[in-house]
Design brief:
single chain; 273 residues; alpha+beta; 4-stranded antiparallel beta sheet; 16% helix
Amino acid sequence: MLQRINMLTYKKLFFALFTFLIVLSLTGCRKKGTSIEAPKEDVAAKKMLQGIWISEDESPFFRVKGDTIYYPDTTSSPVYFYIHGDSLVMRGATLEKYLIVKQSPHLFVFKNHNGEQVRLELSTNADDINSFVMNRPVALNQNQLIKRDSVIMRGDTKYHYYIQVNPTTYKVVHSSLNDDGLQVDNVYYDNIVHISVFQGAHQLFSRDFHRMDFKNKVPENILGQSILSDINYAMTDEKGVHFTASICIPDSPSAYLVDVCVSFNGGFTLSVR
């Protein structure tokens, strides 16, 4: 009888301890969860910012509608924003914060990335809306089909190559500072480039090249903002037929040039020039 009572006592103690640990665990999770809070935006300041704002030369600077900022140029993507404390926060490809110097119903002053004060006034000109009509990002690369081919001789052997640049709808976002010192996201469209090499009537090589085919030759941070601009014939030597692939950051003078060597047995290798 005593042994049975002890067993019941142990079971009650075990159940009580188990319940206590569960409650403690849930309480800890709640406390841990409430420690990370999303930033509380200033709804009144956002409402005050609605409309079209013009710079000191009276040209449209940006348009605020809802929680989105639109730019008058067709290359800059609209960006989500909120106002938190004394900062205008834009969340595009990167998170950018701008210190608000002064805000009133008709005046908005903030500091750009260069530390300069940007002074904007609320537009009263109804025609300014025309600067934002059909405001869609457009491609800045050639966005057209390009074909080229040629015959090359190596000794007595004739080779014939074809190159075709095919535009795509694959978007590449490149972040940069505009003339007003704001970080904007520009949208570009990538290409797929096809190469075929024939030895007489025999097709030696045929392949589509995508930008990501060069991920082991181009740094990741560069490749992510670049497009496969073009591939051009370079030369022919004992290793094979060489082509040069241009991986470029749009609107930048720099580019990664990667050698695409098609061997005479139909394979290919990539190397940085």
